[in-house]
Amino acid sequence: MDKIQIMKKREFETNAIRTQMERSSFLEHSSPVYLTSSFVFEDAEDMRASFAEEKDRNIYSRYSNPNSSEFIERVCKMEGAEDGFAFASGMAAVFNTFAALLESGDHLVSSRNIFGSTHSLLTQFLPKWKISHDYFGITATEEEIEALIRPETKMIYAESPTNPGVDILDLQLLGKLAKKHGILLVVDNCFASPYLQQPLKFGADLVIHSGTKLMDGQGRVLAGITVGSHELIDKIYRFSRITGPALSPFNAWILSRSLETLAVRVDRHCENALALAKFLEKHPKIKRVKYPFLPSHPQYKLAKKQMKAGGCVVAFEVEGGLKAGRRFFDAIRLLSLSANLGDTRSIVTHPASTTHSKLSPEERQETGITDGLVRVSVGLEHIEDIIADIAQALGEE
Ligand SMILES: *Cc1c(COP(=O)(O)O)cnc(C)c1O
C-alpha cells in the first residue's frame, strides 16, 4: 500500500527489476528490508485518518509493509494484474482466497489434479464450513465440466501444468465456462511461474502462486501470493488482514530480489528440463516420459499455446514399477531427494509415497500417479551432470 514508482509499460524482465519501492532518505540503490511490525503517525488526526482509510499508507505489517507491497507490485506487473495480497505460504494463499470469497453452502468445481494439500483442504476442511466440491479429470470435455456447475457453484479451480503429472489444462476453455456462468476462475500458476504463463490473459479472475518454488528459486523461503482485480483482492485483503497470514517483510525482500533473476533462471530450468526429457525419451529403462514441450506430450499443442516454455518439471516412469523406482532413488548421488521444486538444485521425488501419499489408491489411479512415477525438478547444475546422475541411477555407468 506504500507508494511504488509507477513505470510506463515495459518488458517483463525490466518490470521484474525496475519495479521498486520509493527510496528512503539514504538514497539506497537496492531496496532495504523494513523489519517493523508497525508504523508511526504524525498526530491524532493522521492516526484517525489512517485508520479510517482516508490515507493509503502502512499502519501495521499484518495489513501491509513496504517489502510485501514491492513483492506484490512486481508480481502484478508480471501477471498483468491490478492488485494482490502476499501470504506466508502458498497454502495460506489458497486457503485465504477460498475463505474470503466462498460462503457456507457454496460449491466449487475443481480439477482433480491439484496440489496434495489443496486436495486435503477441499476434502477434509472446507466441508466443515459446508463448502463442497466436484472434481473433473484431465480428459474431461467442455460438456462434462459444465455439467458439474450448479446454482451454488461459485468457482472453478485449476492448476496447469499439474503436479506431478505435468498435464495441461485448457485455461481459455475454463475461462469461457466461468464467464458464461458468472463464476470465478482461480488458477494456481505455481508450476509455470508468471514468466511462462499468465492465466489472466486466458480469462482467469485470480492467480495464485506458491512463491516457495520458482519465484524464490533457491529453496530458502516459504511464500504465497494471490493477484487479480482490485475488487476481488480487496475482499481477500479485508479477510486476510484480520486472519493474519501476512508474509514476513524479510521473506518478501528475499522474493523481490529473486524475481529480478526469474526470467534468466526459468529459461535455463526449461532448457535443462527439455534436454533431460529428450534423453529419457530414448532410454530403454524408461516406460514413459512426460514434459509439456516434448511433441509426444498429449497436450503439446495446448502447452505451446499457453506457455512460453515447458517448465522445470519432468515426470517419468521407470520400467519395473515400485521396486525399480526405489532402487532408482537409492542410487541417486548428485540430485536431492526432497519435496521442493523450482530450486537451483535438481530434486527427485516419488509422489506416490510422499506428496500424494494421502490420496487413496483409487484417487492416485484417477490422477495418473502410478507407483513407478518419478518427478524431477530440473535445476541449474550443468545438464551433463544432471543427466549423468540419472543415467547411473538407472543402472548405466
Ligand atoms: C507447493 C505448492 C503449493 C503450496 O505452497 P507452499 O508454499 O508449500 O504452501 C500450492 N500449489 C502448488 C502447485 C505447489 O506446488
UniProtKB/TrEMBL annotation:
Catalyzes the formation of L-homocysteine from O-succinyl-L-homoserine (OSHS) and hydrogen sulfide. One of its GO terms (biological process) is homocysteine biosynthetic process. PANTHER family: CYSTATHIONINE GAMMA-LYASE (PTHR11808:SF80), TRANS-SULFURATION ENZYME FAMILY MEMBER (PTHR11808). The keyword Metal-binding does not apply. It catalyses: O-succinyl-L-homoserine + hydrogen sulfide = L-homocysteine + succinate. Keywords: Amino-acid biosynthesis, Methionine biosynthesis, Pyridoxal phosphate, Transferase. Its cofactor is pyridoxal 5'-phosphate. InterPro entries: Cys/Met-Metab_PyrdxlP-dep_enz, O-succ-hSer_sulfhydrylase, PyrdxlP-dep_Trfase, PyrdxlP-dep_Trfase_major, PyrdxlP-dep_Trfase_small. This is O-succinylhomoserine sulfhydrylase. Belongs to the trans-sulfuration enzymes family. MetZ subfamily. GO terms for molecular function: carbon-sulfur lyase activity; pyridoxal phosphate binding; transferase activity, transferring alkyl or aryl (other than methyl) groups. The modification N6-(pyridoxal phosphate)lysine is found at residue 213. Homotetramer. Pathway: Amino-acid biosynthesis; L-methionine biosynthesis via de novo pathway; L-homocysteine from O-succinyl-L-homoserine: step 1/1. GO terms for cellular component: cytoplasm. It comes from the Bacteria. It is an enzyme of class 2 (transferase). Its EC number is 2.5.1.-. SUPFAM superfamilies: PLP-dependent transferases.
